[in-house]
Description:
Layout: H1 8-16, H2 23-35, H3 39-51, H4 58-71, H5 74-86, H6 93-105, H7 109-118, H8 124-136, H9 140-152, H10 159-171, H11 175-187, H12 194-206, H13 210-222, H14 229-242, H15 245-257, H16 266-276, H17 280-289, H18 295-307, H19 311-323, H20 330-342, H21 346-360, H22 366-377, H23 385-397, H24 401-412, H25 420-431, H26 435-447, H27 458-474, H28 476-492
Amino acid sequence: MYASCGDVRSARLVFDKIQNPNVFAMNWMVLACTFNGYYEEAIGYFCLMQKLRNVGNKFTFSILLKTCVGLMDVKKGKEVHALGKKVGFEDEVSVSNALIDMYRKCGEVCYAQRVFDRMIKRDIATWTSMICGYCNIGKTGQALVLFERMRLEGLEPYDFMWNVMIAGYAWGGDSIGAFALFSRMTREGLVPDIETWNAMISGFVQSQQAGEAFKLFRDMLVSGIKPNHVTLTGLLPPCGLTGSIQRGREIHGLMYRMGLGINIFIPSAIIDMYSKCGSVKNAQNVFDRISVKNIASWNAMIGCYGKHGMVELSIQLFERMHEEGMQANEVTFICILSACSHNGLVEEGLKIFRSMKESYGIEVGKEHYSCVLELVKEMPIEVPDSIVGAFFNGCKIRGRKDLAKTRAQDILNMELKKPGGYVTLSNIYAADGDWEEVENVRKMMKESNNHEKPGYSWLEKMNLLERKEKVMKVRKGKVMKVCCLFLKISIHISTF
């Protein structure tokens, strides 16, 4: 009872009093923990089940695979798959469906296809999950093949599946394919409902075809379909994308007349739209009228001030949020650090960065370090080549080529005096077969007169080192701060 109501704490207390919990009690605990986001604890209860020599049943494995989706841990999912196969549950339709769902949501559609191909019996959920998997990665051709094959096997698609297919084509920017399916759906006697229209509009918004999205919206209104909050919220991003504040105001007004403004998630989308359209005043008015502000609305307004150079207001709002008892999250710090970096507030930005873990318990992520690198660029001191080399080497060793490439141009603009950083970055590009970038790096290296030089013996260099040591002591203070930051970034690359 407690587990089904989402009261994990009470369910846990009752469970702990059971001397020999059976499979049903175990399943309820795994289910309750999974659906309330306690994924590690759910895994813990399954491990307890194994210790008690309780194999579990098909429901155990179906639930546990949802836990793996929550963790986005395909490796653990494969372990559950192997165990399920060992105890003979892989042939159960419900378990196979859960496996397909886990693999496709974790981005491993090829593994999902293997499970699908081995299934002797498939139901509508099997086909739906597989079609969704291909649509989500933009392979609408394969999705359509499965769609037609399903119909040949006697299963008729329901509304949701039509919507997934239509949205898949729209997401890929294929308006012809999307409209063809839309027309076909109508010809076969199915009336497109609000969900179908939303799928089409959302798809064109995702593919940044704002004109098509607004045209569809007009067609929907003409057909007599009343928009809902999903429709209107989905149309706000293209207003910001095109800078069309007039359209944005019209949608905002329509939301107000329909009474949709009471939804706590809508105001933050409106603030973001006005921010992207350059109207800070309208964004501020929306924010001030929110009676119960959630973290999304605070973040949207902090980000709005930062994007428009009002960094002092951004920091003041950040402090006010803390005073009013609202807990900052990862996005909050990206907004405030970005505001500081874009406006050159180095010391304030670094102070906020240091407070993330110490005062707020927020783990530092890739986006936060990217903001810090922007801040470091504003500091009027030179970053030693050795630290740049350490950063690129860290990226190479930890397999974070994406991070190295993202920051490459900014770091190379620091005019390195030694070839180490150039060489490592060149090797990173070469490993990916990006020979054009390899050539660009080598060209920069040549222009800066950076070449590998013959080595010296220790005795030959002794006197020179002693003289340099005296000079370096003078510049040690501020340089050390930047060195520590770069080293910290290099060390933490492994956690991303």
